[in-house]
Amino acid sequence: MKTYSISQLARAFGLSQSTLLYYDRIGLLRAAKRTAAGYRRYSENDRKYLERICMLRGAGLSLADVERMLSGDSGPSVAILEKRLGELGDEILFLRNQQHSIAAMLKNMTSHKCVTVIDKKMWIKMLEAAGMNEESRKAWHAEFERRASEAHHEFLLSLGIQESEARDIQEWSLGKL
């Protein structure tokens, strides 16, 4: 069976050896074996486990949440992912607000025309100017939701709409509200 040294495993995942030593110290990832000289040797299962750790860390989960996710109990896993998704929605909204602020500052500071950031209010005005009333906007949202629910959700968030309101709009467009 193939095994990996700490340096091979660290290099394969773009991590430092000290990160793997830390994971070992906190009990998150322990080497399957040790050589006679005490060097860690990681198994293929360890490599797959580290791949899952890296995927979860890449999604922005804390080490404590990663540990809970990998415990095997799906109940907390769903709650952890839902919590992280909400946090990301908040971060996106925060960044969108910063983007609006910077665009406004640039517009005030320069004579050059800045790119306007489209937000919810502007989007509704554009749809109304195109002759769309609430019923036709609902049909537009329903079609977007039916064809690409995740893209519809991301679009709503890109307008600076909060996570909960975006979900409400999705449900409204399908007649669930």
From TrEMBL:
Keywords: DNA-binding. Residues 3-72 form the HTH merR-type domain. Coiled coil: none annotated. PROSITE patterns: HTH_MERR_2. Gene3D superfamilies: 1.10.1660.10. GO terms for molecular function: DNA binding; DNA-binding transcription factor activity. It comes from the Bacteria. This is MerR family transcriptional regulator. It comes from Syntrophotalea acetylenica (Pelobacter acetylenicus).
